[in-house]
Amino acid sequence: MLNQDLISKAKLNDPKAQMELYLMYKSYWYSICLRYNKNNYDADDCLQNSLINIFSKLNQFDQNRGNFKSWSAQIVVNDNLMFLRKKKQNYQTFDLEDNLLVEEPVSDEGSIISSENLTKLIQALPDGYRMVFNLYVIEGFTHSEISEILNISIGTSKSQLSKARKLLQHQLEAVI
Amino acid sequence: MGKNKYTDLDKLFQSKLSEGRIESGEWNDPTDDAFFSAMRKVNSSTEQVKEKKKLAWWPFLFLFLIPLSLLVIWNANEVNGLKTEIKDIQQKESVYENSQNTTIALSNNINQTSQGLPIEAEGQVKIRDNKNKSTESIQAKSGINDDNKLVNSSRDHGKRVQKPLFTSVNNSITSKQALPIGPITVGFGKENIEKEIRSVSGDLDKRIKQLAPTLINRFDGLLIYNRAPVLLSSTEINLFNEDKGFKKFELFLFGNASFNTIRMSDVESNSFSLTGYDKPNLGYELGVGLLHSISERFSINYDLSYKHIGNNSQFRNEFLFEEEELVTDIDGDLVYQLFSELQTPTGLFTANQDLRFEGGNMEDQTMMDQEADIQLQFKFLSIGIQPRWKVYNSQRLSIFAEGGVNLNYLMHYCRSVDIKVYYQNKMMMNGAPEDDFSMSSLNRVSVAASLSLGMEYSFANNYFTSMQLGTSRSLNSINQLSLDGSKTYIDNAGISIAIGKKF
Fold first, then answer.
1. In chain A, which stretches have pLDDT less than 50?
2. Are residues A117 and A37 in the same domain?
3. N or C end of chain A: smaller count of CB under 10 Å?
4. Do A108 and A173 sit in the same domain of this protein?
5. Which of A18, A115, A169 sits opposite B39 (nearest CB)?
6. Residue A110: exposed, middle, or buried by beta-carbon count in 10 A (0-12, 13-18, 19+)?
């Protein structure tokens, strides 16, 4: 109820409501950006683009048709995909040996298998692998949908997912 | 999610990264700079849109207000001039005080005698001899029976008549010569009026004779009391007018030039790459209309028209070029076999065509920019019904507000899509424009609400011209069921010019 009220106010460009919405979801949105990008700088840029889109398209959000969190997450995911496309990064297939390097070391604090560390493992994947893995495993898209979203063949989607899994498995075994 | 097969590894990631399961911490706490920067952009773009909308209306407002102001000023000056002249004549009247006491009333709206006898003339002259306290009819002298009782108690020559002098019409004069005075027709020709005035009082001020037709043109009615002209109000004229249920029609042709925009709602976020559909495109409308006057101020406008509306939009997307889809066609040209779905304002468009390879080196698995120009064309047959309320009404000029609904029937539709592919801003592939005329996914009938403000100016004999500034807004979507769930509406704002005749 509080959420709906907030969204209604934010639709009217109420700065307080916009700020509260942002504070409520910023970690979630930023986590998505981190998952799709190699580094925090790119994730920051993506978050900014996503915020612009979320708040400028807020009037299109119908509270009766879905929840705000999923709706906003869809925008964030799309903006991340768009951002990566703009960077003209290729979905080239990588040899496993070229991609074993984890750019940022996983944190020693707490459990090895934390959200933060798993995100870092995903960040270390090549762009093509990372996008397919995120879309398939976390977002729940099918290969057919991924092929349409990324304009790649279903076969490419499947092979990139397979390679991403192998890389992640290898990296996990290395850190545990 | 149910369709996908997940490994244990996948489940591990889902358990930590799915919605609602992410652990918060410093690692995913962004700086607030991104938010403040985004908000600045959102607010500035909102202001820009508002400013753009305001600016778009300015030319229309000026186009409407300038001629309106000029007409009102001109009308007011003319009326003031005439009123001043009447005062002068009223002052001169004292000179004639003891001469013939004759009252002449000229009214525009009298259609029937009190006895219910139809009159052929569209105007009347009533004459009263105050000295003899009897009614004198011009044509009674030539044999028409006159038995009206008048209630004139005023003996103050030249003063404004507060109450109607006549309870009934006592005479009618047939004249086929009508004055060209605009919305209300007077059955007297200039010659007739001057002749009748002359016949009543031969030495009437020449100026009254000159003014009489003009005064009738400009005002609801004219009473010449003891040779002094007195203007009658509409109420007073109505008391003369026995037939309250008069009907008037105006038949007119009209043309409309408007800016049309397409409004899309419920657009999924993955459709953001569709742009330009909301930019105004010029359209036109031609039609015929009939205005039925229910009362002096209220009327109903019925119209039938042909509408032509166009729209241009652009779809931009990026896709992965795969060399394996490059083939040689029958002419030996290198073509790329494209199969993709494009978002358009009228739903998804399936592009299944060969793009001619223009040249340049491309490696397999290269991201390319796909651009499509989408041109839409709609032709509607429209039927409208709009009640009209005159907020200002004089003999020549009226200003009105009109609002109602239009039923639009889609007669013709064409969607033309022209696809080109770029790499680093250089065109690499070119497709032939593809036309689609299928209306199966569209609503053939749509309803729009309209609102307008206009003015009508009468000229010559019962002819008029009008100008309207209006806007209309679709109430239902053009799309029946769009796969992407979007709804598309056509809105427009424009100016209409009409010319017609009253009868």
1. 1, 89-102, 109
2. no
3. N
4. yes
5. A18
6. exposed
Which residues numbered 33-92 in A keep a CB inside 8 Å of some CB on B?
34-35, 43-44, 47-49, 51-53, 55-57, 60, 62, 69-71, 73-75, 78, 85-86, 88-92
How far is it, in rounded angstroms, from Cα A91 to Cα A82?
A: 14
Provide the domain limits for residue A43: 1-89
Nearest to B279 by CA among B293, B262, B267, B301: B262
- Please name which of B306, B292, B334, B302 lies closest in space to residue B421, comparing C-alpha atoms: B334
pLDDT at B156 over 80: no
Q: Residue A124: which of A162, A156, A168 has the closest Cα?
A: A168
- The whole-angstrom separation of Cα B101 and Cα B93 is 11
How confident is the model over B296-322, as pLDDT tens digits? 788 999 999 999 999 999 888 877 777
More confident residue, A22 or B423: A22
A69/B19 CB distance under 8 A: yes
Q: What separation in angstroms does the CA of B316 have from each of A82, B273, B319, B483?
A: 11, 5, 10, 19
The per-residue pLDDT for range B281-296, each reduced to its tens digit, is 999 999 999 999 888 7
B102 versus B475: which is more confidently predicted? Answer: B475
pTM of the model: 0.47
Architecture of domain B247-502: Beta Barrel (2.40)
Q: Please name the residue ranges forming H helices in B118-249.
A: 190-200, 206-218, 234-240
A130-164 burial, b at 16+ Cβ within 10 Å, e below that, comes to bbbbbbbbbbebbbebbbbbbbbeeebbebbbebb
Flag if A60 and B266 touch (Cβ within 8 Å): yes
For every residue of B109-122, DSSP letters joined together read S--B-TT--B-SSS
